[in-house]
From TrEMBL:
Protein name in the entry: Flippase-like domain-containing protein
Biased composition (Basic and acidic residues): 1-15
Topology in membrane: Multi-pass membrane protein
Keywords: Cell membrane, Glycosyltransferase, Membrane, Transferase, Transmembrane, Transmembrane helix
Keyword Cell division (UniProt): no
GO terms assigned for molecular function: glycosyltransferase activity
Cellular location(s): Cell membrane
Any GO CC annotation of this UniProt entry: plasma membrane
Amino acid sequence: MAGPHRGDGSERSDPSPETAESGGDRADGGAPTNAVTSGATAEGVTVSVVLPAYNEADTIEATVATTLGTLAAFLDPGTFEVIVAEDGCEDRTPSIADRLAAEDDRVRHVHSDERLGRGGALERAFEAAHGDTLVYFDTDLATDMRHLEELVERVRSGAADVATGSRWMPENVADRPAKRGVPSRVYNGLVRTLLRSDLRDHQCGFKAFSREAFEDLRTDVEDAHWFWDTEMLVRAQRAGYEVAEFPVDWEPKGDTKVDLVRDVLGMGSQILRTWWQLSVRPRLSKRVGLVAGGGLALLALVLMTQYIDFGTVLSEMRAADPVLVVAATLVYLLSWPLRGLRYRDILAELGYRERVDFLTGAVFISQTGNLVFPARAGDLIRAYVVKARRAIPYPSGFASLAAERVFDLLTIASMAGVVLIGYTVTGQTAELARAFVGAEGAGRVAVAVAFGVSLVAIAAVGAIAVSARSDRDYVTELVYRVSTDSYADFVAGVIGRFVGDLQTVAGTRTGFARVGATSVLIWTLDVVTALLVLAAFAPALPLVELIAVSFFAVSVGNLAKVLPLSPGGIGLYEGAFTLLVVALTPLGPELALGAAVLDHAVKNVVTVVGGYASMLGLNVSLTTAVEETREVRGAEESPKLD
């Protein structure tokens, strides 16, 4: 498990009594950096109890006394120790723990100057522990201490490798207020369902591990925060260890609240990450990757026939000029190398140099995925591909995708705005408003969403430009407004780097100009494609009007696709496109819908064919790409180029 709590192993060596005593009498009231303070020796100790502590100055002394008394009631003298795993406290907890260790040779103090997270602090303390039975429980003593003997003996006797108290077993359900009980049940239900755990309560802070189980599992556990013990329990079951769950009396202490960062971003993402590692990744193979890649392309083609009723527009489509349709297809093909070029420039601003052909293939694959999965979930494929094939870190991969989306939205919103200004100048805005008010169904919703997204896009770009030139850390400030948990440090760091990379692209004049110019070319070709398709229906429109309506219809149609209601925005694009054409021209709805369907079909077919060809050419698919990330997961992130 990679993380800041991994030291060089020096923490495992206990200082001498003289060092321990002086550590407890420091004039500044502090504690040695990353030190273990203890008067105990390893000889005879079989049970090590760890008390994870963060700012527990008011309770830690009483908790240690209660723990020592409870252990002494059923264990022989000299066979147990109590370790205060103090995790970067900001109060008097370190000095109190030092004093307790100096006064009682059964007490030890593991100190860290920086917060390691709950899991990190526990793992580090277990590493330093002397016993073969490793126990921990929360310092608020919410679990009745009369259960401590059963917890210890379950593991010490060899009856179980791992033991955990439970508040949700049928014979002893804890009386918890809804604000704590409901989230806990939802969390445990997700763990049981997705991670196939047989346990009912994974969060109860009352657990014990054999030394053998801990040493075997610790290298596989990746989380260093609140998910650490859940992951230990799940992986222990998967590894075949005997895990015992028994009911405990538990009384809530304090006012624990739902924490957005910890509970949603932290715990939720860790459940999904563990599910992927344990349930999906072991089933991946090259054969599965090829089958999945082919199925991905075929499914995209099938979906195009499911969301649209082609029967109402077939006659109009049959009359379309095939020469112009072919020309439209060729024009749209020209936009794909430009997409690869733009992605190259974005990555270059982030410090990574890659070939245009490789990046064009990666874009093809991800866009094909977007035709299958809603909410642009196919974008994840590209992040996986560049991580696996070029070791570009995930935060930078996602930042590059976000930068691309920002430029896309800015470009198409600007195109729509320019045309709208043109219609305002010529006095045609009133006709557009009347058409919108009278419209029904998906078209009206799509246009409303499109205009809303355009405003948000412009506001977001402006905010990024402003923050890129500011010395304030707005990201960290925002995270700590909604969370003070230790996991907030990790989340703030990841998001901060993500936004920093995004600001790098948007904040450099040269980069902004290059990426912006390429974006304009890409979407101009997209508009020309739609223009040629419209022209294939012989609409008898003046060229200027044909160009204007094509710009507006394509812009609003693509903005409407942001609404995650269908894969690839199929249906939304056609609805918005049709509404705009009917509103701005004398063309009938049948012709407008036929043009919208054909325009989107041309673009989707090119995307699917290019995506499938790229999968074969690069030997990459969603499954194989994710499988290969295992080879680079533990490697250091590749250094950025100057």
